[in-house]
Amino acid sequence: MAHEMIGTQIVTERLVALLESGTEKVLLIDSRPFVEYNTSHILEAININCSKLMKRRLQQDKVLITELIQHSAKHKVDIDCSQKVVVYDQSSQDVASLSSDCFLTVLLGKLEKSFNSVHLLVGADAAEWDWLRVKCQQYLSKAR
């Protein structure tokens, strides 16, 4: 279904390079179901998953995306509208192919209204996902 372009795409190598450079703050959002997030996720990623109720509340502006981020985080998050936001779900391969009514499209749209730079991680197969998770965890654990 055609819709206004939401977010831009980022590949795994670019995300790792961005994190390793340390020049910009990056907010990682894992939009997979909680069970998948709990099984394996990138260190410091915040899990924001879809329920019909949450999707509706976001669509109706009954909850701010910044409030949802704070509520979903395991710790206080410093939110800065100039920081880069990278969303991943481990299955989306192209922003343009997302349905206008899917949760990921709603999430990306709300993030774009609050942050200057929003990206969807694309192109990670299972092996690349494991590599990315390890690389990010190595970097993020050093940065602590």
TrEMBL record:
Record domain Rhodanese: where: 22-92
SMART domains for the chain: RHOD (SM00450)
GO MF annotation, one: MAP kinase tyrosine/serine/threonine phosphatase activity
InterPro entries in the cross-refs: MKP, Rhodanese-like_dom, Rhodanese-like_dom_sf
Protein name: Dual specificity phosphatase 16
Gene: DUSP16
